[in-house]
Write a structure and sequence with these properties.
Elements (H helix, E strand, L loop, with lengths): L5 H15 L8 H4 L12 H4 L12 H9 L8 H4 L7 H9 L3 H8 L6 H7 L11 H5 L9 H14 L15 E5 L3 H12 L3 E5 L8 H4 L8 H14 L2 E3 L10 H6 L5 E4 L5 E2 L12 E3 H9 L18 E5 L3 H12 L4 E6 L10 H10 L2 E4 L1 E8 L5 E14 L5 E5 L5 E4 L2 E4 L3 E2 L3 H5 L24 E3 L2 H4 L4 H24 L1
């Protein structure tokens, strides 16, 4: 899908809604399948590549209602099965179609307190939209009902109307719960546990809340203002916050229970340990992990060069190694920081890329160049130890590996060199090792992920875990799903203790 002016998209939606609004309750499935998918309005590509404002502008009222009319309201609700937190998707979409936006967002918040965030960054095409009957009927998941865009629309509507409701909190129980990390898993645990009347304190290592949503996802995809406003609901519920508090350094994990009197602890410290390729030249000046690069830009304000709290490396030609969403984020951030050329180097083809199609499309529109079936062999430096070039190998695809994707095989003798001054490694992150290192009795697997049972309880009494520290680097919504299970486990345990 190529770029279309937002005004044209809006005019088209107004016409379609006019044709269908008078017979909204009489529409048959065959009628709904004829309604065109509503594309998401965006900034013009060349303009947005020079600013950090949000790329996706969001639906108008008419666009949202037309898109909602495409839902078949299936009695089997396969989309709900595809949602890690099991939002009642058909119900909230039905409310949007009828213009009842507050009812829609209330329905979402029965399962999720972060709809503005999830509507923007969740890979719906791999989850709820993958199982959508409309997409299956049209034999194209890209034609499924745009569930994520609709979720974002009503969440933004509620916030813009000043109608955000604070969830009710039950009477105090006298129980205390510590939540380590303020990423998506931690925020969900804090909300669900606090609703039951337990006292909750979030311990955050950084000076700002949000975890990966703050330091890992650029503002042009997820504005910090949105993160702040979602977190504000927790504060109004009475959740306490301790920033600049590193559990494992400021305080030991076991001390929270044995000395500070917490009745349960949730570990949601994420996957913040960068993985490198282990090739020659990775220690040169101008080589960054995507984690560091994005943290400097997103959390520490490097976009604001006049007032930034952190320096950022000046780059003209950037190579980003990897094919996931983090690679897309890093490449697009590099453009916005002034790079003249940005290459994404990926050793498979575009078909195998794990990044969302939408993010790949946006990167291409903005001018990022993709080099498929290539990968770095070594990074070359100048006499001052700075990156000056990168030697690469060409690849071909072999048989599928354990991920189900065809395995990349290097072509012998295919080496070639490209001139670059910056290399960003975006091939993944490992679990934060600090708590395991300082709490050896906590059982982990060989990758450092905390081992938990079906209720997210760890090997240690009263200690639960979830999100990327358990799953490895995953998605916001999967982390939220883990958080919901952990909160249920904690609430069940504390209820039993109170009953005895």
């Amino acid at each position: 899908m190529s770029y279309i002016e937002p005004e044209i998209l809006s005019e088209n939606a107004v016409k379609v809604l006019h044709d269908y609004i008078h017979k909204i309750d009489e529409l048959k499935p065959k009628d709904r399948l004829k309604i065109p998918l509503q594309e998401m309005p965006t900034q013009e590509p060349h303009e947005r590549a020079c600013n950090i404002e949000e790329v996706a502008i969001g639906y108008t009222v008419e666009e949202a209602r037309v898109e909602a009319l495409r839902c078949l309201e299936c009695p089997t609700q396969p989309c709900v099965d595809g949602c890690p937190v099991r939002i009642d998707i058909p119900s909230f979409i039905h409310e949007i179609a009828h213009g009842e936006f507050q009812n829609a967002v209330d329905k979402i918040k029965e399962a999720s307190l972060l709809p503005s965030i999830c509507g923007r960054v969740c890979p719906q095409e791999q989850q709820c939209q993958l199982t959508c009957t409309v997409g299956k009927a049209m034999k194209n998941v890209d034609k499924a009902v745009a569930i994520g865009r609709l979720e974002r629309f009503v969440a933004d509507w509620e916030r813009e109307q000043g109608k955000v409701k604070v969830p009710e909190v039950k009477p105090p129980t006298g129980k205390k719960v510590a939540v380590i990390g303020s990423g998506p898993a931690g925020l969900v645990v804090a909300a669900d546990v606090r609703r039951e009347g337990h006292e909750v304190t979030i311990f955050e290592a950084f000076h700002k809340l949000g975890g990966v949503m703050r330091y890992g996802i650029p503002e042009f995809r997820l504005p910090n203002e949105v993160v702040d406003q979602e977190i504000d609901s927790l504060l109004k519920m009475g959740v306490k916050i301790q920033k600049n508090f590193v559990v494992g350094r400021t305080r030991q994990l076991t001390d929270l229970i044995e000395k500070d009197g917490y009745d349960a602890v949730f570990i949601g410290t994420g996957a913040g340990l960068p993985i490198f390729m282990g090739i020659e030249g990775e220690n040169l000046v101008g080589v960054f992990s995507a984690n560091e690069y994005l943290t400097r830009a997103n959390l520490m304000g490097a976009f604001d060069k006049e007032h930034a709290d952190t320096p950022i490396y000046p780059s003209k030609v950037v190579a980003v190694l990897g094919g996931g969403n983090v690679a897309m984020d890093a490449s697009r951030v590099a453009l916005r920081l002034g790079a003249e050329k940005v290459y994404v180097i990926y050793r498979r083809t575009e078909v195998e890329m794990p990044a969302r199609k939408e993010e790949v499309l946006h990167a291409k529109e903005e001018g990022v160049e993709f080099h498929f079936l290539e990968n770095a062999k070594r990074i070359l430096g100048d006499e001052k130890g700075r990156v000056k070039a990168m030697e690469c190998l060409r690849y071909e695809l072999g048989e599928p590996d354990s991920s189900g994707r065809r395995r990349p095989v290097a072509i012998e003798g295919s080496e070639f060199t490209i001139d670059v001054d910056t290399v960003i490694v975006a091939i993944g992150n490992g679990s934060n090792p600090l708590i395991h290192q300082t709490t050896p009795e906590l059982e982990t697997n060989k990758w450092g992920n905390v081992i938990v049972d079906e209720k997210q309880k760890s090997s240690m009494d009263k200690i639960f875990a979830g999100g990327d520290i358990v799953l490895g680097a995953a998605t916001v919504i999967l982390a939220m799903g883990e958080g919901r299970k952990a909160a249920a486990g904690i609430n069940e345990m504390l209820a039993k203790e109170s009953a005895n």
